[in-house]
Every structure is written in structure tokens, then in C-alpha cells.
Amino acid sequence: MSRSCSFDSVLVALPAEPLSHVRSHSQSSLPSRRTDRRCCSSAGISLKSERASSTSSLKKARTCSSNASPTTARKHASLSTIPTVMLRVESSRSFESCTAFRRSESPAAVATWQALSRAIQLELKIQQEGQKPKAGSRYTVNSSFEKVNTELSSIEHAYDTQDGNKPVVLKRLNSPETAEHELAILRKINEANLPHVLRLRDTFEDPVTGERVLVFPELKRFDCNKLDLVKVAKYVKQLATGLQAAHAIGLAHLDLSISNLMLDENDDLVIIDWGLARFCDPAHVHPIGRGTPGYIAPEMYAGTATSTAPDIYSAGVIMGQWLEPYLTDCSLSYLGSKLVRSSTTSFITRKIQDHLDTQRIGYEDPWCPVVTYAAELLIKMFEVEPSRRITAAEIVQDPFVLAEDGEFEGTDFQSNAAALLRQSVCCGSPRDKPRIVMRYR
């Protein structure tokens, strides 16, 4: 049996006070009960019953418990007949001010009411956390987006009411140590005014949960499928520009991946998620295996990395995914998998170099010049030895990213796909390469 109450805000469902602990309802207590109902109403708790049958049953049980014999009263007070009270908390006024249900002196009744009071206060905190993450109601959560939870943090979309309801993103960090580290990195980024890097708008400590909250501008998802080659060159340059600025102050991202790239309102690339970033120190190696599997440089697994070179390798994996439609038969489809290791990128490098060599000696139709530039740049970014790997400053000056728009004619995604289709239909398989057959006797 349950008692259902009409309400408009937070829902709390708990066992009500055992019937044996309800005081006798005599005619002399009616005025006080009316006063109690008024107190409940002023505290924001509605006691209007939605089910007449439940109300009448509850009154009947109370009457039995007050007038019947002790044995009958104990029977009606058994756990199987305890009703469930459904309450809606509509304000932050303490539930203790409501005396609609009077406590008795028994320990069981006191414990029940204490649990109910704690639950209501918790629901109020959760409601305040969802609607007013910061004192003063500056940020209001956008309920049209689902909250995204990760191992170290959670992400919520919200509006900045002090900046024309501008959309922002709230990142809540679970660990104080993680929050302190990332906040220090982001403040350094803001001080250095790094380009194409996520900027911190605001930060505060949630008064309800005690979590550190970082406020960022809302960005657009980066859809990197079917990119024109000129767009690939643009984004590679912007990625290298952001890394160049970060590396100039000794900061390595160490977690570059497709998922950590987004676009701003001008469709310019932005590097996000600097939570695993570190300032480089030759005396201290980076944590082994740090980063996203499939994008981690080989020296990070060897435990010998101390520089910013791992970021370039990770950027090469990203660039290789963008170049897959243009560098055909080079196994670039492997990139992005969690199983990618240095042996995978070395295999890809050899295939690209093989195509370049056969094109130079005339056994294969040459790629477009800008495609060749892109292939040569990718080989340099996949260099296994960190000291010989190309730097971000050198990438910014590479012929591929400096090519003029006219050099990309015919390299948009649709034209490139159509050309590949015509080649496969009209020309059949590529020209056979000379083979060297070794026979052993």
C-alpha cells in the first residue's frame, strides 16, 4: 500500500514512519494537524492525495493502530504494511520545519525520519547541481545534451547567463590532483596565448559537490571524413602551428588523437584535452604508454621519451587517416586502430616509399605533386628515431602546407574518387613491377 502525493519538483521515495509509531488521532489533535498541513505547504511539500483509496486505507490503518488491541496494532505495524511516501521537494527549506508527520520517541521512528530528511537534502543538492552549478546562477546546464562521464571527469553543456547565454562546456574533474595539474597547464596556455589550442574561460569549485569545474567555449565536432586535400593541408598546418607554439614553451600534449581535435566557429582546428600534457625535462622521462592506443609514439613504450617528438608521431597518425583516400594501396586504413604500433607505421612507410620509387623510375603513374608532398611529409613524421623526426616548426614550412590553392586542382574528394574509379575500370590492375626471383640449390 502506498501514499501518492502531487508535486512539481524533486521526487523522493522512502518508507514512511511505521504505523505503530503514529500518534493517536483524536478530535483534540485535529487543529494541530491542520496547522501541520499548513506548515508542510509553506515548506514546499504537497500532501494532496492523488489516490483516494490509498488515503482511506492509510486512515483505516492508523485508526486500527490507535484503537485496537496491542496484538492487532503490532500486526498492522509490520513491515509488510509500511506505506511508501512519495514527496516532491519544491524549495530548499529544511524538511525539519514540516511537522505534518509527528515523530515518536521510538528509535525506529527517529531513524526513519533522519533517513528521510537526509535523502531530501541530498535530492535538493542534486537539483541545485544540475540547475545552478555555480553560485550566482551564472551557468545553467543545457538539458538537451546528455552528461558524458569518463574515468577522470564529466562533461556538461551549459549557458553563460552573464555573457548573453553563450554556450559553454563544463568539465568536472573528479580528482583534486588531476584538477590541479590540468588547471596549471591551462593557465600557462592562456598566458602564452597559444594559437589553435583550447582556451580556459573560467574555473570555480562547485559549492555542492566540491569538484573543480573548468569552463570552456563550446566547439564543433570535427567531421574528418571525405576531406578535400586542400582542407587536409589547412588542418595539418593549423595542427603544426599549435604544436609549434606549445613545444616552444616546452609543453608536450602526449595525447593527440582524432577525438582531441575540434573546430571553432570559424572552422579552424582546435587542440583540446590537455589533461595529460607535461612540461618536458631531459632529466625526467614521460610516463610509459601515456596517450591514446594507436597514436602513441614508439619511444613512449620504450620509456625513453623526454622531448616533444611523440606529438609529431601522433600527428602523423592523424594526418595518415586524412590522406587515406589519396594514398591508395598504402595500408593507411590500419591507422586509428588501437593495435597500431611502430611496426605498423614502418610497414606503411615502406609501402609509401615503394610507390614513390616506382613512380620515379616510370613503372607507375606518378601522383599529383601535392599528393607526393603529403606522402613525403608523412614519412618524415613516422620516423622511428625521435631525434631524426621532423619538428612542428619544420612542418609549418613544408611544401605540402605551403602549396597554393591552384596546386590542389582536381584533388577534392569527389574528383579524386571519380579518377580512381575510372582508373580501376579502364586500366585494370597496375603495371606489373619487375621481380627478382632467387633460386636456391
Binned, the helix content reads 25-40%
Whole-number total of structural domains = 3
List low-confidence stretches: 1-66, 73-104, 130-136, 429-441
Shape verdict: elongated
Question: How confident overall, as mean pLDDT?
Answer: 78
Structure description:
The protein has 441 residues and is of the alpha+beta class. The radius of gyration is 33 Å and the shape is elongated. 39% of the residues lie in helices and 13% in strands.
Please provide a brief summary of the model.
The protein has 441 residues and is of the alpha+beta class.
Describe the SSE topology.
Elements: E1 2-3, E2 10-15, H1 30-42, H2 52-67, H3 70-76, E3 84-89, H4 107-131, E4 139-141, E5 148-149, E6 153-160, E7 166-173, H5 176-192, E8 202-205, E9 212-217, E10 220-221, H6 229-248, E11 251-252, E12 261-263, E13 269-271, E14 278-279, H7 298-302, H8 309-323, H9 342-360, H10 369-381, H11 392-396, H12 399-402, H13 413-426
Parallel strand pairs: 1-3
Antiparallel strand pairs: 2-3, 4-6, 5-6, 6-7, 7-9, 8-9, 10-12, 11-14, 12-13
Helix pairs in contact: 2-3, 6-8, 8-10, 9-10
Region (Disordered): 51-78
Protein name: Serine/threonine protein kinase
Keywords: Kinase, Serine/threonine-protein kinase, Transferase
